[in-house]
UniProtKB/TrEMBL annotation:
Residues 1-170 form the N-acetyltransferase domain. CDD domains: NAT_SF. InterPro entries: Acyl_CoA_acyltransferase, GNAT_dom. PROSITE patterns: GNAT. This is N-acetyltransferase domain-containing protein. It comes from the Bacteria. Pfam families: Acetyltransf_1.
């Protein structure tokens, strides 16, 4: 018989439990940055919950109030799911984690739960599992981004900004905008920098410090990572150094 347990990270158990992603490299810059970022977010209401299957790590969910979210979405009184990942599949763990988030939203008198999906990358959760759990698509943005919401009442729908082209127009040189919300951002940055060095292209890194900057500068709804070159989006997810070099040459 399968035994399922959910473990919520907090200030007391973070050092021992740690985050899910990049856990095989606990001394890496990305992993340590992520744990430091989590420690600063708990008092904002962020939840990071891991699910255990027969005492084995099966997956996790991360979500937070919209006013502190790392996703570029407009709205009030919602929880926003940053990440959902399950590697022991077929046992309902993803739905269990989603339902946990929905229940938390109800208990906090929120108007619902938001998630951003994109079929073109594994860096966002899969849309299908949210449709299965009664989320509805209410908006979309360039590069394949979809905005889904599970609402409890008649509150206004959340929505994406509509100034994506204007955001790209601000950056003509190679620019990396990032936050430490994802531990793989450091690896993604290093790969672009390696490609830029080989092509002798000067790159600028902008570390986004708060939600105001994120909402103003991010080139996509994903928020935590974006690479722009010649006023065009190079990537919003990790590329290999080879792939980054190829794309830089194409622009």
């Amino acid at each position: 018989m399968t035994t399922t347990e959910m473990i919520e990270l907090n200030q007391e158990n973070l050092n021992q439990s740690g985050c899910y992603c990049l856990r095989s490299q606990p001394n890496s810059t990305g992993y340590t940055n992520k744990n430091a970022w989590l420690r600063d977010r708990f008092n904002e209401g962020l939840k990071y919950i891991k699910v255990m299957d027969n005492e084995k790590l099966a997956g996790f969910i991360e979500y937070t109030p919209i006013e502190y979210s790392s996703r570029v979405v407009c709205g009030d009184n919602y929880l926003v799911i940053h990440c959902l990942w399950v590697h022991i599949t077929g046992k309902g763990h993803a739905s269990t984690l989603i339902r946990k988030c929905i229940q938390d939203a109800k208990e906090k008198n929120k108007d619902g739960v938001i998630v951003i999906t994109n079929p073109n990358t594994s860096w966002t959760p899969s849309k299908d599992i949210f449709i299965k759990n009664d989320f509805l698509e209410v908006d979309h943005a360039p590069y394949g981004f979809e905005l889904l919401v599970h609402k409890f009442g008649d509150a206004p729908d959340p929505y994406f900004p509509n100034d994506w082209e204007e955001r790209l127009a601000r950056f003509s040189g190679l620019t990396i905008l990032r936050t430490p919300q994802c531990p793989f951002v450091e690896v993604a940055t290093d790969n672009v920098m390696k490609a830029a060095d080989k092509l002798e292209i000067k790159a600028e890194i902008i570390d986004i410090k708060n939600r105001e900057e994120l909402m103003r500068l991010s080139p996509t709804p994903y928020g935590i990572y974006g690479v722009i070159y010649k006023n065009q989006l190079l990537s919003f997810h990790r590329l290999t150094a080879h792939s980054a070099m190829k794309r830089l040459r194409e622009l």
